[in-house]
Amino acid sequence: MENLDTYDRKILTALQHDATLSLDTLADLAALSRNAVWRRVKALEDRGVLKARVALLDPASLGLGLSVFMLIRAGAHSPDWSTRFSRATRDMPEILAAYRMTGDLDYLLHARVADMADYDRLYQRLTAKVEIADVSASFVMEEIKETTALPL
After folding, report:
1. Distance CA 38, CA 43 (A)
2. Which of 36, 95, 112, 152 has a beta carbon 3.0–4.6 Å from 32's, enabling a disulfide?
3. Residue 8 and residue 41: Cα distance in Å, rounded?
4. Tens digits of per-residue pLDDT, 58-105?
5. Comparing C-alpha atoms, which of 25, 3, 6 is closest to residue 15?
6. Roughly how many angstroms between the first and final C-alpha of the chain, as a whole number?
């Protein structure tokens, strides 16, 4: 756990909501000088606390209106299978997140696709790359909350 002071938390909170904020704006929000904010941001980047600054896109505007969670039961529990599965999920841009889980199912994937036919193509490509014992999919009917902002 990183030790963050009040200034770091103010800077990170602001950047989580708008990574395009200028150093001057961040300085005003944090009540610091522009140079102090620049040094803090640089230090947060160097320590890996601030990993990236990205733009969040509207999936529906880009024809990716269907959000799906895929529950995966592994086809094997060997290091080779795990490596191939990890590589397959990393190489498929539709898969936004992949998690190894505890419990009955082994992996949880979150993907964005255009429609059901697009999901089927994703499913077919994934199962062609690595053997999977079972796949269950749940499709999002309503997105109530989705954020990238971490609680500070």
Report:
1. 9
2. 36
3. 8
4. 999 999 999 999 999 998 899 999 999 999 999 999 999 999 999 999
5. 25
6. 12
Q: Which residue type does 1 have?
A: M
Q: b/e map of 34-71 (b: 16 or more CB within 10 Å)?
A: eebbeebbeebeeeeebeeeeeeeebeeeebebbbebb
Q: Which residue has the tokens 């140079």?
A: 35
Task: Quick: pLDDT tens for 29-63.
Answer: 999 999 999 999 999 999 999 999 999 999 999 99
Q: Looking at residue 8, what DSSP letter applies? A: H
pTM of the complete model: 0.88
Name the DSSP class of 35: H
DSSP secondary structure, 62-99, as one string: GT--EEEEEEEEES--SHHHHHHHHHHHHT-TTEEEEE
Strand partners, 66: 113
